[in-house]
Every structure is written in structure tokens, then in C-alpha cells.
User: Fold these one by one.
Assistant:
Number 1:
Amino acid sequence: MPPPTKRRRTEPTAVEEITFDLSARQEYLTGFHKRKLQRAKQAQEAAAKRAKAERIEHRKQIREERKADLERHVREVNALLVPADAAPGVDDERESSGSDDEWSGITDLEPPPIDHEAEYVDEDKYTTVTVEAMDVTREGLFKAGQEDAEENEEQARDASEEPASEKKRRWTKDKPKDAGHRGKKKKRNFRYESKAERKATRYKERSKNKKQARERKSG
């Protein structure tokens, strides 16, 4: 047997200092509600991610099913068309029957006359019916072309009847062009005098009155 190993004596490490963080303690004691809200938010985000992945997978399955249905429908249609193409006699019969009866198009039928008269006799009664084309407007019913004729007449009447005020006056020797202006009196221009002009006018009037008074005294 090997000799027993000697165990080294481990000296206990002395803790130099123990610090107590009051802010961390305060945050732990007052943060229960905050941590609860964080866990709820994380759970909601995880649920939203799972729902999104499920929707994507569901849409993928729907697309694959629709694609498979479309391919199956195409195969069925092709299977139905193959026997029809394999029978050449049917097409020949259709072509032969179609060549005999060719379509000549739409035949132009003359419309019945609009403006005409019809006579009806019933025992002792005799009636004449006149059919004419009419135009429908907001004002009522008019004969075809009647409204245009009335407009042309109004335009011609307006052109012929010129207003008297717009007629050009003709000047002659008896009535010259400036005859109306000779009898008119020229209007004087009126304006207000300034303060200096009024003062000068009063001074002139006073000096004139004084001069006349001196002449009367001397005379």
C-alpha cells in the first residue's frame, strides 16, 4: 500500500470586509410588481411569436392544398379532352355542315317611315293620323328641327333690330360734331386754399380796403 498522502493544512481566508448595499436591497423589496409585469410581457411576446408561426404554417398548408386541387383538376380536364381529340370524324362532320350553311351577316332592314299619314275607316267614321318626328327637351316636345329654326329666327331678329342707343350718329353741316359741346358751360375747378394762401388773401383785401378808405377821405 502506498503511504498515505499528507493533507496540507489550509489556512482559513479571513474576510477583509463585508459591505451591505442598501440600494440593491431597496430595489429587491420594491421590485416585485415590476418583475411580475416583465414576466407577463415576456409571456405575451412569446405567445404572439407562436401564434404568428402557427398562422404562417396554416397558410402554407392552405396553399399546398389549393395547388394540389388545381393540379388534380387540370389532370381531370385533360383526361376529358383526350377522347374528344381522338375522334377525328366529329370535327370533319362539323366542318362539312358549317361550309354548307355560311353566315351572310346581318341584313339591313329599312326602318319604317316616321313622317307619314295613315287613313282609318271604321263604319261611318273616317280618321286621318299624321305621324311626325319629335324632339324631347326639358321644355317639352317639339317637332324635329323646330327648335333650331326658332333659334335661327331669333338670331336674325336680334341682328336686324339694333338698339337706338348703339346706332352711330351721323354728323352734317347743320349738326356739326362739336355742336353739343359749344352750348355747355365750362366747369370751374374748385380747390381748397392752404393756410398761407388764406392769410395772403386776407392781407390783400385789408390793404385794398385801407387804400379805398384813404382815397375817400382825401377826395
Number 2:
Amino acid sequence: MATFAIPADMENFVVGLIGMGDMGRMYAEKLSAAGWRILACDREDSYDSLKEKYTGRKNIEICRNGHLVSRASDYIIYSVEAAVIDRVIGQYGPSTKMGAIVGGQTSCKSPEIAAFEAHLPADVSIVSCHSLHGPGVDPHNQPLVLIQHRASDSTLRQVETVLSCLRSKFVYLTAREHDRITADTQAVTHAAFLSMGKAWHANRQFPWELSRYVGGMENVKVNIMLRIYSQKWHVYAGLAILNPEAREQVAQYAKSVTDLYKLMLEGNLDGLRKRVYHARDKVFGPSTTWEKRPLIESSMLSYFSLGTPSDAPARPNNHLSLVAMVDCWAALDIVPYDHMLCSTPLFRLRLGVTEHLFRNTSLLDSALRTAVEDKTYRSDDLEFTFAARGWAECVTLGHFETWEKRFVSTQQFFEPRFADAKVVGDQMMKMVLEGQKPAMDE
């Protein structure tokens, strides 16, 4: 591992962290290990437990509240839920040390920047950031967005120096660019996999026990769904509800699912094929223009599984969830490959499994024929359509409480398999990062 040395002119530089959730703790531990002095806090009712947890931990001092962090830190990072960012900055922002730098870690930058502008003193610089990965992922070589909103170049260099110990890849964007890219790379795929989980939950199904959902692309779909539901609900709620670009995309995804399902009910194979192939060419380009190397090797798709099906032999799947993703992207003129610089391993998995379906004409045709001709799982697709529309309505109304209830109820249903899914999911993402094929058992 590369060594890190703090520059002589920053030896007394203090980093403040307001919010010690999963990402806040990751930052505190990584930065303190590199030698930076950390002042950190969470809600005051967490003070004693945090104090005990980090007692004796070099370079980390737990403070009772954000006022104590803000007034003594040179660079303060807010790692709090997007839904409460304005309230928290309004509470602690006025206490910011004169001439300090402030940033935030929320997944939606528009409300974050608006809160900074509303509540921070004019002498404070604003350089926000966003690590485009979860707290359990090694930040090495992962994209780390830096937003130089109200700061000099020399101030930006200071932030780069602090965060360079993460060994991430800096990506420089404006707040608006960040929100558009995160929406384009996450909103639709999140909606798809959230809807999968909700539909399986509604049917009281554990998909790894059913032949329809074991093997090939199904392995990746199930693991991504479980990985999403194993996270904190507010991570996905903030992106979907507070980001205007994401709201439009979630609504369009529900419309795409509904329109495609209606074509299935009508038995309109020609209409379905025409619509889907138009979307394919618009999003991926003609098949002759695709790169030879796929995002996911086919061997990976068949390697990872959470279980052995207990029902009948495998039956074909219409992959409504994936087909609707591409239909949605086409309707909104989104080409996800345009944002690969900001892609995460999880996004590459989500896009890769979709690409696998669409770059294989025989596989795609089989899915479309199944959608129209095979009614075995029509009720499952109905639940999926309900789920997609339910998430879209929740986002349109801006109901964080409803989102939380919907998410947590399904999370609890699948929770017993989260540990197994994490092991398998980590292996899949490692292979995506390394671009290697899985080593098959002897």
C-alpha cells in the first residue's frame, strides 16, 4: 500500500466530520490512519457510544455536537442524510471556523449546495465531494467527485491533499453535472431492482429457490437486489426524491414497465419487438458498433448463485425489468456509457447484465417471445408493474416516510440472506473491477 505524508504546511490541519454513519466512519478511519487529525460527531444521543468506540483511536476525537466540530476544523464534511441536510447545516453552519472549507457527502448536490449558500458565512469556502461507492467498498481507484463551488484553486488543492489518501480517482464536476450523472447512472437501475425486490416480497418468493430466477443473468439480478436492500433506506430515497432529474426518470421507468406490460397482455409481439429494438439501437447503437469486450463476461453470469431451485426445471424469462430499463433510457435520450468515468462497480454490474441481454439477439428475441406467448409468470409481472408504479408515486409525492416503510418492510423480508449475498456480491464486483473471469472449481 502506498505511504502517505502530510505536507509540512498542513501539519496542523484539522478535518471535521459531522455525521458518523457508515460513510462518515469510513472517512474518519481512512483519514485518521493517514495521519490527519479528525474531529467527529453524530447525534448527541450517540455521543457516549461513539466516544467509547473510538477511545484510544489515534487521531480521532469525538465531539458532543457539530458546533464543537465546526468551530475548530479547517475542512468540515457533512455526512448526513440528504433529507435533513438543510436542517443540519442550518444548525451548525454558522459556527464554522473563519476561513474554513466545507463540503458534503450527499448523493444529491442541489439541496446540499443551496443549504451551504443559505447558512454558511461568506468567508467560508465550499468544496463538496461524493465517493461513488458504498462504505464497504475499497475506495482505491473508485471515482470521487469534487465540486469546486465557492473556492480558489489553492483551496481545492488542500481538499485534494486531504482526500488523496483514499487513493480514489478524482472527477471534477459542477453540482448540476453531478446530479444529472448520478441520476443517469443510478435512478433507473435502482428503480428496477427495488421493484424486483418489492414484487418478490409481494409474492412471498425467495427467488433463489425458484428455477426461473437461478442461473445466468438471474444470479446477478438477485444479488444486486439483495445488495441494494441491505443498505440504508435513505441512500436511495435521497437520490430519487430530491434529485429532479431522478424523479423524471423513475416516473418514466414506471411508464415503460406499464406500456411494455400492456403490449404483453395484448399479445402484440410485433409491436413489442419494434419498440424494444428501437430502444436497443438508440441506447446501445447498432450491434455492429459495439465494443467486442462486454462489461460482464458470460462465465461470471453462470458462476454466482445463492441457492439451488426446488421447483421444476428452468423456464425462460421475459426480463421485463431489464427491457424496461433500456426503453426508459431511450425515451429520455440517456446513453449510460457516456458516464462510465463516474461508474461504480455496482453500476457496471447493472449495466453489464442489461448489455448481456441486448447484445445477444437470440436471447433478446427469446425474452420477447416469452413475454407474449408464455403466461406462466404473468402474475409475477403484474406485481412487478405494481411495484414500479408504487415507487414512482412515492417519488412524485416526495414521501420519505412512505419510501422508508416500503423499503424497510421488504428489507426485513430478505434480511436472512444479506450476509450470503454480500459474500457473493463482493466476489462479483471484484471480478468486474479486475476484468477477470471466475476461476472455476477443479
Number 3:
Amino acid sequence: MRQITKDFRTQAMKLYVQSLGREHELLSNEIKRIIEGFPSENDDGFDAEAGCAAFKQYHELPSRGQRKQSRTCRRPDSYSITGRGFLAPAIINQANIKLTEQEHHLLKLGPQFIFDDPKTAARRRTTELATLKRKIEARFFEKKVRPGRPVEQFIAELDVLLQNLHNIPSTKKQIQFNRTRTNKSFDNLSSIIQSSQSSQSQVIIRPRKKKNYGRIVKRLKYKIHLANTILRKTDKSKVFHLGKVEHYQKKSEEYMEKTKAYQCLGQNGLLKKQYEQLSIKPNEVELAHLYYLPKAHKPGTPLRPIISGLKHPTIKISKFLDDLLRALFDQMASNSTVTSGFELIQKLQEWSTVNMRQDTIFCTIDVTDLYTMVPQAEGVLSLKKMLDQLKLKEIGKLKIETIIRLSRFVMTNNYFSYNGQFYRQVRGGAMGSPLTLTISNCFMYFFERQIANQIRNSCGLYFRYIDDIFITINWPVRHLLKQIDRWNKFDENIKLSANIGSTVNFLDLSIENQDGQLYTTIFQKPSYEPYYLPFNSIHPLHMKKNIPFAMLLRAIRYCSTFQTYLNEREKLRMALLLNKYPNKIIDEQFNNMLLKFNVNEPLTVNNYV
């Protein structure tokens, strides 16, 4: 029996090594193709040779399996840089629509990309300046003063300034090109001409043609319309998703049937002329509409419903109440809620110094469909309960009774259109209305009181971020599962689904218990794509510079060991290079981040804390 077991293990390891070798070969060829296709120059005039060299340097580093690692640095395979989606930001084409190379490239640039279109910029500049002028004049009229010519002069000067700023990049490139051309000596030029003439018969070098993004967008819209396809950005990875209309319709009906949160009111039954006479002007208010974000990171690609009501009649009331109440909730629930993974790390590190053991378990709990499952009456009642607990009689010169009445009005008057039908939400709140988040948080706060107290009385840790709950405690797994079953009976509207183990993922944080020691690193969902705002997008430069800064800061805060920090920095650099960030900008922002926190020397194993 031992010999059979030994032979089986040997054969299994041989197959495993062969599969790894094949995977390494495929990935090596793909990376080699990317390196060879790297541009010599970026669109914005930055030298890309350094970026290409850095990409090669990191590619040629020994793989993590070849490095000598201690036990404290082991991580699951999901953290390998050759994981799914690493090589390039992708799109999810479940509709199987045929795309040209240009269309595919445009979609790969992602939802955040804005292409340089002077006509669009000119139209938007005119609109924005007209809006600004109206606002300035309104403030003058409030003071009973006529605006006069100074306002006209200011707007005219601002228009000229914006035009000049918009034209700076191309002007700079032209000046740089002219200087380079005049500085070249005649000998160099003649040698270049001779070499080009000698190779002209072999290779024809064609100038790079500027892409007409506007034309590609129009063609893509037409193709998507003909293919009966919906284009959406995904819920988590924020890349584009292409899905069939009938699939969206089917999943929408399934979701509405499951939650029972929406009541169909049918069509309006009016003639077009009658409807136009009775409806409010579109520039004043607008009926909300329902759309879905595909959850590509979950099996079956379920949908997240979003009710877009930016001009809905109740949106201003919702924003006003949310501004009043959210700060009060944050104050009341500060001991049981977190706002980020970094805040959870700080709480965990403090707790682990005293309570962490080898058998300590972590548990993450997801609340199913929180926004649509909170009953409207009970949700508003939880607001009243919060205000009573804080012993407030009025907020901002507004009586509590008025706040409750307005909240009830917002929650019970969520109307929207979808697929030619009109609906009223009869359960939960609109995911898109600001007040819905505060009411859901209040409802969960009073629901979880008994759970949080039970965990803390057992020297455990309990925190929640909206509909995600984190628990760590020194209980047997069987006992914790029994308690979760009991908690599921507290309220028929709240259903908890748990994940328990020595390693869990919460928000963007991966937490592990290794022999009584706490280890943390960055967690990326299986649907993760290395997509950041493309550097060639027409966004302000400070926004692009902030991305390497913030992402490296997150890596340092999340990674508990120096080796995991190096791995995350390596992945981050490659992802930024793939999104056309110059290596010069990346290094500059990495250094700026360290300098801001008074780190004047390179990070090493010895000084990484």
C-alpha cells in the first residue's frame, strides 16, 4: 500500500511539474510579445525606454517558487503575479460580439478613459462657462447688485485661459520636436538619410496614424445596438462587460421575483401629447430608471440593481437628510464599524497582541441583499431609535418629527422606469439614494447589538462595513456555526452567509493566522484586472500621479512582511506600465510617498515595520 501511495504521489508530481512548465512557457511567450510591442515613445512625450527596461527587469527576476522563502512568507497561489488577468486589462465579452482590433483596444482602456477630442472639449467648455456665468450672476442678484461688464470680461478671459491650457500638451511636443530637429548636426542627418535609403527597399516605415476615437465609438455603438447587447462596467473590477439584453431581462425578472421589492405599475396609458402636457419639464426633474451592474466576480454573473435618480423629485430631500444623519450614525456606531481595510488592520493588530492563539479563527459574514431586504417602516423606525438614543430633539433647527416624516416620504416614494414599464419600490430603499445607506446602517446597527455584545463578552472582535461583517474569536468552528444559525433567526429579512477559517478575505484585505501570528496582505478578487486610469487619458496630471502614490501606500499598510510588500510593489509597477505609466512617474511617486512619511532611506527587511 505504501508503494502504491508513493507511486501515485510521484506520478501526480510529474504531471504537476509538466503543467507548470507549460504554463511558464505560455506566459513567457506572452510577456516576450508584450515587451517587443512596447512603444519607443508615449503619446505624451515621455520616454518609454525606461519603462520597457523596467518591465524586462521585473520579468527576468526569478520566480517566487525559485526564491528561498521562510515559512512566514508563504502565500496561496492566488497571489502569484501570473494569476488570472495579470497580463493586461481585459473586457468580459459574454455576448460573444465580434470586435475589431481598434474596438477591442478602446474597450480595454476601460470606463475611466477619456480621449482627446477638441470638438467635445470646446462644446463642454462653452456649456460649463455658461453655467458658471449664471451662478455668478445669481450670487450678484442675491446681493441686489447688477453683474455688469466685469463678469463678462472674467468669463471671456477664463475661456481664453482654458483654451490655452487645453492646447499646451501638443504645443510642448511641437516645441520639443523643433528643438530636437534643429540641434541635430548635418552629419547625423545625412547618416540617417543614407541608412533609411539603404533599408527602404527592405522595410517601409509608415508614420503612426492618430486614432479617431470618436469614429470608433460611433461604430461600436451601432454594432452593440445591432447585436442586441448591453455594455456596462462590472461591479468590482471596473472593466467593461458585454452581455445580451435577454440575459439581463431574465436575471432582472429573477431578482424582482426573489426579493419582492418592486411593484409594477404598468405603462402610463396616456397619449404622447397628453403625457407631454402632464409631465414635468425634463430639465427640472426626471423619473429614475433602473439599471444593473454585472457581478463578474461571482458565479453566474448575478446583477446588482442601481436606481439612477439624479433628478428624481426626492433626491434633494434624500441628500439633505443624509448629510444630517450620517455623521450622527458614524458617531454612534464607531465601536462596531470600520471604513477601510487599514482601520481593521489597526484594530486587529491591537487585539492580536493579547488574544491571538494558534486555534484563533476568522469569520466573514455577508448580508444578502441588504438594501432591498430592509423593511421600509422598520428602517425609518431605526432612525427614530437612533435619534432617541442620542437624546436629540432637533437637528439643524429641524424637529425630529419632521425628519422622520421626510425620511418616510423618501423611502415610500421610490418610482422608476425599466424596460418600458413603471415600478414602485415597496420593500427596502433605492440603491442610489443617499439616505438608503444611512437607514440600512441604522437597521443593521440595532440588529447586531446582541451579536456584537456576545462576541466581545467572549474576548472576540466584531466589526461591520455596510453588509460585510468580520469576526475573530477563539471558539470552535462548530460552536460558531451554531451561533450563526441562531443569529439567522433574529429577523426574517436578514440572511447571513458565513465563511470561516484561519485565512479569510475581507474588503480588499487578506488575513491569515499562521501558528498564532497575524499576517495580512492585499486581497484581489478572482475577477481582478490590472486596470487603472490610462496615462494617455485626458485627465489632470495630478490625478494620474496620485494613483501610484495611493496604491503603494496601501501596499505598505496592508503587507505585514517585507517579502509580500516587494511582491505587491512588483505587481503594481507592472500593472502601471501596462496602463502606459512612464517608469519615471512611477519611481517619482514611489519616492514621494516614502518622503511624505519621513522615510529617507530605501525599505529593507530590517527597517520594514
